[in-house]
């Protein structure tokens, strides 16, 4: 068990591309940290650098206070679970799990005992004499975990360990991983591209984009107080709605009506070099059917009317899809996010909204409906650099903050 | 029942085709075997099955030092050349499959060039070189060219096998505490075994069958291999053709090949890497 410190760690390749740029990260002993981001953001490279499978171009990596930049993977005492599982096909489950112990030259009895313990924890005991080819995906995944935990390393590194499992098993294994990590209390760095995994598993989440860290924090904080457009768009499912907003004197003109501005934002936007156009971000759950909002809360938001396209009733609540006229928000970050989910160039000219309304709402497809949204929960972003303008001292305060 | 009808018909068609191919390939071999058991008198009677069986031809070839020495030379030279080519080829192929080193394309290109170069045009220069180096008519004099010309084949076959082995396995071994050497020996090499054995068979057959180098670079029984020795067979008198003896020798020299292939073929099992990674 150990703490891991990344001090301005960078990775550049001989052809000049920079895969990871100045990553600063302090992982406390026993902490579960998730590296998340779209493909190509440098999260796997970062993990491989911690593992020692890739050289660090500049910066320092310390495990337990010791600089380990130039140490071979085997001298770092960390275990890794690979996305592909990477089980040794010529060995049985038992031999796979014993492999690191045999390399460490432990005596036979100790190896037996440790393998048996790890197998028990992961419920692999009946499978010990099988070859990996005769295991199901979930079983293979557990063997890969077993091989990692068996020698009680200083830290676990996991590279998208669940992404090859089908959806149902993935949810199940997620809890297994989480429970195992709490039980063992071992420092863990976990890489994923799935924001749901990041939100549910980690003590802290590191969001990366283009080799740089965007924001580091506990999942809820990233969700409530995203530092920039990219983080806001990446975290949350369904993701945040983004609309074009034009700055006018004391308010914003948007496709969902005029948004009044509080003193602080007004001051900021009055500056000489302030942007004239903004991006308005609203999470689906901050909308509500205008008819269901009580008088007290109504004042904290504003209302608009829009045609309802699709209603998806989830039982507990309703997902309502609407189209509002007006410009779509555009920014490099948004295009990148769309490209990551494969939805680039899709959506046409009008802006689409996803809202999450109470189950009691009587909203029906095809009608025009009055909806309300909470002004205290909205975010405003500068399209040129993606910065969240509503963020003040790390907290998002909505449009009305004074 | 139309579907099963067609499958039965298809089975027959394929079966027939298989028989044709097997007969086409085996008839000359059987013919040789049949000739080797015939007496001199019945040699040309045109019967597929000998009327009079005899082992005289076999006695003849084993009674002469010529053939036995050649057999020893063949086995020794082919085994040594195969071993060296496979070891060198394994190392080179591993580098070609795994590493990105400067000059990799050139190496692969040159080895391909060697494989395609007409060997007959190299015989004269090799002859001169070997004579001035004192390698002419020695075992190394044949082993060296055999290694040279079988290495491209070995590198190609083996690098294809190495490329199939997931790289993650090596990374996993390193994370588990293995040195590069241990990772190669305990994880990669066992998985590459089918490739190594396939290559060994191919290289051995190449060395075993070679006639061109063997006849050009040898002059005495000291290093003459069987294919060459066969061509030097003479009858009892100059009016007698040694057909029977040649056939017997031809049958004898196919035996080591068959043994070699049978021995290694068991180790060529596919699907060794299955289960390593999610396909």
TrEMBL record, chain A:
<dbReference type="Pfam" id="PF17912">
    <property type="entry name" value="OB_MalK"/>
</dbReference>
<keyword id="KW-1278">Translocase</keyword>
<dbReference type="Pfam" id="PF00005">
    <property type="entry name" value="ABC_tran"/>
</dbReference>
<dbReference type="InterPro" id="IPR003439">
    <property type="entry name" value="ABC_transporter-like_ATP-bd"/>
</dbReference>
<keyword id="KW-0067">ATP-binding</keyword>
<dbReference type="InterPro" id="IPR017871">
    <property type="entry name" value="ABC_transporter-like_CS"/>
</dbReference>
<keyword id="KW-0813">Transport</keyword>
<dbReference type="InterPro" id="IPR027417">
    <property type="entry name" value="P-loop_NTPase"/>
</dbReference>
<feature type="domain" description="ABC transporter">
    <location>
        <begin position="4"/>
        <end position="235"/>
    </location>
</feature>
<keyword id="KW-0547">Nucleotide-binding</keyword>
<keyword id="KW-0472">Membrane</keyword>
<dbReference type="InterPro" id="IPR008995">
    <property type="entry name" value="Mo/tungstate-bd_C_term_dom"/>
</dbReference>
<protein>
    <submittedName>
        <fullName>ABC transporter ATP-binding protein</fullName>
    </submittedName>
</protein>
<dbReference type="InterPro" id="IPR012340">
    <property type="entry name" value="NA-bd_OB-fold"/>
</dbReference>
<keyword id="KW-1003">Cell membrane</keyword>
<dbReference type="InterPro" id="IPR003593">
    <property type="entry name" value="AAA+_ATPase"/>
</dbReference>
<dbReference type="InterPro" id="IPR040582">
    <property type="entry name" value="OB_MalK-like"/>
</dbReference>
<dbReference type="InterPro" id="IPR015855">
    <property type="entry name" value="ABC_transpr_MalK-like"/>
</dbReference>
<dbReference type="GO" id="GO:0005524">
    <property type="term" value="F:ATP binding"/>
</dbReference>
<dbReference type="InterPro" id="IPR047641">
    <property type="entry name" value="ABC_transpr_MalK/UgpC-like"/>
</dbReference>
TrEMBL record, chain B:
<dbReference type="InterPro" id="IPR000515">
    <property type="entry name" value="MetI-like"/>
</dbReference>
<keyword id="KW-0813">Transport</keyword>
<feature type="transmembrane region" description="Helical">
    <location>
        <begin position="106"/>
        <end position="127"/>
    </location>
</feature>
<keyword id="KW-1133">Transmembrane helix</keyword>
<keyword id="KW-0472">Membrane</keyword>
<feature type="transmembrane region" description="Helical">
    <location>
        <begin position="12"/>
        <end position="33"/>
    </location>
</feature>
<feature type="transmembrane region" description="Helical">
    <location>
        <begin position="139"/>
        <end position="162"/>
    </location>
</feature>
<feature type="transmembrane region" description="Helical">
    <location>
        <begin position="75"/>
        <end position="94"/>
    </location>
</feature>
<keyword id="KW-1003">Cell membrane</keyword>
<dbReference type="Pfam" id="PF00528">
    <property type="entry name" value="BPD_transp_1"/>
</dbReference>
<dbReference type="InterPro" id="IPR035906">
    <property type="entry name" value="MetI-like_sf"/>
</dbReference>
<feature type="transmembrane region" description="Helical">
    <location>
        <begin position="243"/>
        <end position="264"/>
    </location>
</feature>
<dbReference type="InterPro" id="IPR050901">
    <property type="entry name" value="BP-dep_ABC_trans_perm"/>
</dbReference>
<comment type="similarity">
    <text>Belongs to the binding-protein-dependent transport system permease family.</text>
</comment>
<feature type="transmembrane region" description="Helical">
    <location>
        <begin position="183"/>
        <end position="206"/>
    </location>
</feature>
<keyword id="KW-0812">Transmembrane</keyword>
<feature type="domain" description="ABC transmembrane type-1">
    <location>
        <begin position="71"/>
        <end position="264"/>
    </location>
</feature>
<protein>
    <submittedName>
        <fullName>Sugar ABC transporter permease</fullName>
    </submittedName>
</protein>
């Amino acid at each position: 068990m150990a703490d891991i410190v990344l001090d301005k760690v960078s990775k550049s390749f001989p052809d000049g591309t920079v895969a990871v740029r100045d990553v600063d990260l302090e992982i406390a002993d026993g902490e579960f940290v998730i590296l998340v981001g779209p493909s190509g953001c440098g999260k796997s490279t970062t993990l491989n650098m911690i593992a020692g499978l890739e050289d660090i171009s500049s910066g320092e990596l310390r495990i337990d206070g010791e600089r380990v930049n130039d140490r071979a993977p085997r001298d770092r005492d960390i275990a890794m679970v690979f996305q592909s599982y990477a089980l040794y096909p010529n060995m049985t489950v038992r031999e796979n799990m014993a492999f690191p112990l045999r390399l460490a030259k432990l005596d036979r009895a100790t190896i037996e005992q440790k393998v048996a313990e790890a197998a028990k924890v992961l419920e692999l005991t009946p499978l010990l004499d099988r070859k990996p080819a005769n295991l199901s995906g979930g079983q293979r995944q557990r063997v890969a975990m077993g091989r990692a935990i068996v020698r009680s390393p200083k830290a676990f590194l996991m590279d998208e360990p669940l992404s090859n499992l089908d959806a149902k098993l993935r949810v199940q294994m997620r809890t297994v991983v989480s429970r195992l990590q709490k039980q063992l209390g071992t420092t863990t760095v976990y890489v994923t591209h799935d924001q749901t995994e990041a939100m549910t598993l980690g003590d802290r989440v590191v969001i990366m984009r283009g080799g740089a860290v965007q924001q580091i924090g506990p999942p809820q904080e990233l969700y409530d107080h995203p530092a920039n457009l990219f983080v806001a768009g990446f975290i949350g499912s369904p993701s945040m709605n983004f609309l074009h907003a034009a700055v006018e004197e004391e308010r914003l003109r948007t496709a969902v009506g005029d948004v009044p501005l509080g003193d602080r934002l007004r001051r900021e936007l009055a500056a000489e070099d302030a942007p004239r156009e903004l991006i308005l971000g609203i999470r689906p759950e901050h909308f509500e059917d205008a008819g269901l909002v009580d008088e007290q809360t109504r004042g904290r938001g504003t209302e608009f009317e829009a045609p309802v396209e699709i209603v998806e009733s989830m039982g507990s609540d309703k997902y309502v899809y609407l189209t509002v006229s007006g410009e779509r928000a555009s920014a490099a970050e948004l295009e990148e996010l769309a490209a990551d989910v494969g939805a680039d160039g899709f959506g046409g000219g009008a802006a689409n909204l996803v809202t999450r309304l109470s189950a009691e709402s009587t909203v029906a497809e095809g009608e025009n409906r009055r909806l309300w949204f909470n002004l205290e929960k909205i975010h405003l972003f500068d399209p040129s650099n993606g910065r969240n303008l509503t963020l003040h001292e790390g907290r998002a305060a909505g449009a009305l903050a004074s | 029942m139309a579907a099963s009808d067609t499958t039965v018909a298809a089975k027959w068609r394929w079966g027939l085709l298989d028989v044709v191919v097997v007969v086409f390939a085996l008839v000359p071999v059987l013919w040789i075997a049949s000739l080797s058991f015939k007496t001199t008198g019945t040699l040309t009677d045109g019967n597929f099955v000998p009327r009079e069986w005899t082992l005289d031809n076999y006695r003849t070839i084993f009674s002469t030092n010529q053939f036995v020495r050649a057999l020893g030379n063949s086995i020794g030279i082919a085994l040594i050349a195969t071993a060296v080519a496979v070891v060198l080829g394994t190392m080179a192929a591993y580098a070609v499959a795994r590493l990105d080193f400067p000059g990799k394309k050139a190496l692969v290109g040159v080895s391909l060039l060697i494989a395609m170069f007409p060997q007959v045009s190299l015989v004269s220069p090799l002859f001169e070189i070997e004579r001035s180096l004192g390698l002419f008519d020695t075992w190394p004099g044949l082993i060296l060219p055999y290694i040279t010309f079988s290495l491209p084949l070995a590198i190609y076959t083996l690098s294809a096998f190495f490329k199939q082995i997931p790289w993650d396995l090596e990374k996993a071994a390193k994370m588990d505490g293995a040195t590069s050497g241990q990772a190669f020996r305990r994880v990669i090499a066992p998985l590459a075994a089918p490739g190594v054995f396939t290559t060994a068979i191919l290289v051995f057959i190449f060395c075993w069958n070679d006639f061109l180098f063997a006849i050009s670079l040898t002059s005495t029984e000291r290093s003459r291999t069987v294919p060459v020795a066969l061509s030097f067979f003479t009858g009892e008198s100059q009016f007698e053709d040694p057909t029977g003896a040649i056939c017997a020798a031809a049958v004898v020299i196919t035996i080591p090949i068959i043994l070699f292939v049978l021995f290694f073929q068991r180790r060529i099992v596919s699907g060794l890497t299955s289960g390593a990674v999610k396909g």
